[in-house]
């Protein structure tokens, strides 16, 4: 009977909630795909990248420079990748019925996500160009800004998971929301790796 119950559970596949969440992630992939396409089209249309030649004399006089810092975003990338590992450890913990592990690793993931956001805000403050400084500035801040919003949303999502974990709402048999949260956070991580490669390495 027990074996039959397990087999039946596997045959049921994804729940409607998880299927809907996966479709949501698919729409997010298309959203960022559109942003990346806009960036590469703008880059292809420019005779050099970043397009310093588009800066006006007034912008040059004001000290506008289309340059980005590498090492700070690189360290932030390492932290975000680490947070992807820790949120997966949280999933593994609750799969084994380890609630304390779920709480601990979710908290660590939240801290890493917040540190990433703080580093991104600090990086913005050190840049010598704004969102209106050529198409480069527009695409740079649009891509990183929307990603930052998604990171902030992921931190809120993990905060809800942490609160529910502290209330004892998850078990080894019932933790679908935790897995959904990890899927979202892995997605955010992968998008940032693509962004970091595109904006900080390829140019």
Automatic annotation (TrEMBL):
Segments forming domain Heme-copper oxidase subunit III family profile: 19-203
UniProt keywords, alphabetically: Cell membrane, Membrane, Transmembrane, Transmembrane helix
Matching PROSITE patterns: COX3
Segments traversing the membrane: 21-42, 70-90, 102-122, 142-163, 183-202
A Pfam entry, by short name: COX3
Ligase listed as a keyword: no
One of the record's GO cellular component terms: plasma membrane
Compartmental location: Cell membrane
Protein topology in the membrane: Multi-pass membrane protein
GO terms under biological process: aerobic electron transport chain
GO function terms (MF aspect): cytochrome-c oxidase activity
Similarity comment: family membership: Belongs to the cytochrome c oxidase subunit 3 family.
PANTHER family: CYTOCHROME BO(3) UBIQUINOL OXIDASE SUBUNIT 3, CYTOCHROME C OXIDASE SUBUNIT III
Protein name: Cytochrome c oxidase subunit 3
């Amino acid at each position: 009977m027990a074996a039959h119950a397990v087999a039946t559970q596997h045959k049921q596949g994804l729940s409607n909630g998880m299927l809907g969440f996966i479709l949501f992630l698919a729409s997010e992939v298309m959203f960022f795909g559109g942003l990346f396409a806009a960036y590469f089209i703008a880059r292809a249309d420019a005779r050099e990248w970043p397009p310093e030649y588009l800066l006006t004399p007034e912008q040059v006089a004001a000290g506008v420079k289309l340059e980005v810092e590498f090492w700070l975003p690189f360290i932030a990338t390492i932290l975000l990748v680490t947070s992807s590992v820790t949120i997966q450890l949280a999933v593994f913990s609750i799969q084994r019925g380890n609630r304390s592990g779920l709480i601990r690793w979710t908290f660590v993931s939240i801290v890493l996500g917040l540190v990433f956001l703080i580093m991104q805000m600090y990086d913005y403050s050190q840049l010598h160009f704004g969102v209106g400084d050529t198409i480069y500035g527009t695409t740079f801040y649009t891509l990183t800004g929307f990603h930052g919003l998604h990171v902030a949303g992921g931190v809120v999502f993990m905060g809800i998971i942490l609160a529910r974990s502290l209330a004892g709402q998850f078990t080894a048999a019932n933790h679908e929301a935790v897995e959904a949260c990890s899927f979202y956070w892995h997605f955010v991580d992968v998008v940032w790796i693509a962004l970091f490669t595109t904006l900080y390495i390829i140019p």
